[in-house]
TrEMBL record:
Pfam families: Chitin_bind_4. It comes from Cryptotermes secundus. The keyword Signal applies. GO terms for cellular component: extracellular matrix; extracellular space. This is Larval cuticle protein A2B. The gene is CUA2B_0.
């Protein structure tokens, strides 16, 4: 009778009616875990859409950059620009979609340099030396720049 009960208990355990004991791996000595089914994301949007933009023009630091982007489903279009340390403006226009992948076109504009304003040059006559020789003559020298 005990042998029949033991066999029935093993059969029930194998069928999953009673929780099976955790198996222990010899190396790690931790029970093996079974993966739970993945949770379904109820916030998933099959057709995401957005649009955003920003622009920074900081006269104090000289920081000048901006970006704009729109998305409609799997198609993204946008551009960004910035002034690089050498003064050139780099603008990148990009698109991304499932057929063509990501594509970007880079444009560079030369630095805009203000023409230097020439300062007026003043010519001042100033005596460099005055000498009175023993002969009684006075010599004065001046520099005219």
């Amino acid at each position: 009778l005990q042998l029949v009960l033991l066999a029935a208990l093993i059969a029930v355990a194998r069928a999953g009616v009673i929780g099976a004991p955790a198996f222990v791996t010899p190396a790690a000595a931790t029970p093996l875990a079974y993966a739970a089914p993945a949770a379904v994301d109820t916030d998933y949007d099959p057709n995401p859409q957005y649009s955003y933009a920003y622009d920074i023009q900081d006269a104090l630091t000289g920081d000048s950059k901006g970006q704009q982007e729109t998305r409609n489903g799997d198609v993204v279009q946008g551009s960004y620009s910035l002034v690089e340390p050498d003064g050139t403006r780099r603008t990148v226009e990009y698109t991304a979609d499932p057929v063509n992948g990501f594509n970007a076109v880079v444009h560079r504009e030369p630095a805009v340099v203000a023409a230097p304003v020439a300062a007026p040059v003043a010519h001042v006559a100033a005596p460099l030396a005055v000498a009175t020789p023993a002969y009684g003559h006075t010599i004065a020298a001046s520099y005219y720049g």
